[in-house]
Amino acid sequence: MPDGYLHTQFRLQEALPNLSHKHQLLCKSVESDDVHSSRSLNAAMLHAADEIGITIIKFPNATRGRHGYHASCYPHSARTCHTNPMSDRSCSDHHTQSSLLVPDLLSHPLFAAWLGIGAIALSLVLILLLAYLRYTLRRRTQAERSFLAVWRPLLLSSLQSSVATVLPMVARHERVYFLKLWNQLMRSASSNEAAENLIAIAYSVGADRYSRRFLTRGKRVECLLATLTLGHLRDHASWDALVLQTMAADNATAIHAFQALVQIDAAAAAQQLTPLMLARNDWAITHIAGILQPAHAAFMLPLLEAAEEIRAAHLVRALRLIEALQLPLSHTAILKLLDQDNDTDIIIAALRIASDASLLPHIRPHLQHPDWRVRGQAAKVIGRIGEHPDVNRLIPLLADAEWWVRYRAAQSLVGIPFLSMTEIELLRNNLSDRFARDMLSQAIAERQTL
């Protein structure tokens, strides 16, 4: 159709039988080919639409397309329809999606206003919450500083001599502050007298009573502080509660409870808790060794008995603890552990604690073990307790396929006390394997920098 002509098509839903005859005439397709002015047709459309309750909405030129008119039909019934002259869809197609005109809430001004008010309210709540948290943190910091200003001089003076003055009361909210300060000073006590003075002060302010309460009903921090305190106080009354804490899933809670029990009664803890100590793989060997070091005599027998049993479930951990505590394991027990038929981890643990030259005949075969970890550990032991003929056994390991085996063999050759540096350099120059020469050169350079 040429420009200047307006083709408008209205279709109402066929399912509206109650429309008047005038409505039906208007909803028929109207072709306005004989009208030369779109303005006259528009006026006629608006007049007819006004009679039957149809609102003609004229869109701006930028959005209306070629014709730019959209008719919203509001007949006298409760039903509504929308007719677009740019589309061939009928009003009945539109009514299959919705029978009522649902407003777009997202674009509604009232909805947008409430959304903005809600966002502002939420922001205010967050600001108030942050202000409250900062205020409470500042109050706690000020309270702790006030407490330390009074108690730190008293507890520090007790490290030198007993406190004869009347001690102030420890308020309920100050108990955690007291336990923190007290445990810090207990760790730094350099003499038994200083420790006994601190223990006397703790008993005088009732630290043992509320520590037991914290142990069973306190928060995590309170429970940990109570555990440390009861261990330093050697409080036998809390034994059962501490034993229960050693079975906790929390690693820190369990291992601190174990430490407290060792402090309270090392012999009883060794008899009762050695199986648990070996079974808790989440307890680091170095940490346990540090706890047991002051009381290693009490744990020596249970650990040695565990090492004697070759089929023990936690034999490797027992051997690692024996090594860390430097406990004397019998020659017969080590020979059983070095058997080729044992598991690799057991052999490695036995090699780590082997320190007797009489074990060399049982150690040398492990230089050809299929597992590179065993070969590397055997080379390390040979370098510590080996003899002169063992030099020829270490040289082939310099060309081993595994880097760590080559490195351990080179370290052992450089560290053997009966080889001079001249002999080692001559040995390096005579090596035919390039990787062996490089590894021995590295070991020589490391020794020279020490």
Question: What does the secondary structure layout of this molecule look like, with pairings?
Answer:
Layout: E1 8-9, H1 21-27, E2 29-30, H2 38-52, E3 54-58, E4 69-73, E5 81-83, H3 91-95, H4 109-158, H5 175-188, H6 192-204, H7 207-217, H8 220-233, H9 239-245, H10 251-264, H11 266-279, H12 285-292, H13 296-308, H14 315-325, H15 331-337, H16 344-353, H17 360-363, H18 372-385, H19 391-394, H20 403-415, H21 421-429, H22 434-449
Antiparallel strand pairs: 1-2, 3-4, 4-5
Summarize the structure.
With 450 residues, the chain is mostly helical.
Q: Tally the helices.
A: 22
**Principal-axes shape call:** extended
Order of helices and strands, N to C? EHEHEEEHHHHHHHHHHHHHHHHHHHH
Q: What percent of residues adopt helix (DSSP H or I)? A: 55-70%
The chain-level structural class is: mainly alpha
Number of strands: 5
The average pLDDT is 80
Task: Give your account of this protein's structure.
By secondary structure, this protein is mainly alpha-helical. It has a domain at 8-101. Helices cover 61% and strands 4% of the residues. It is built from 22 helices and five strands. It has helices at 21-27, 38-52, 91-95, 109-158, 175-188, 192-204, 207-217, 220-233, 239-245, 251-264, 266-279, 285-292, 296-308, 315-325, 331-337, 344-353, 360-363, 372-385, 391-394, 403-415, 421-429, 434-449, and strands at residues 8-9, 29-30, 54-58, 69-73, 81-83. A three-stranded antiparallel beta sheet has the order 3-4-5. A two-stranded antiparallel sheet has the order 1-2. Strand 4 (69-73) and strand 5 (81-83) form a beta hairpin. Helix 18 packs parallel to helix 20 (403-415). The longest helix has 50 residues, at 109-158. The termini are far apart.
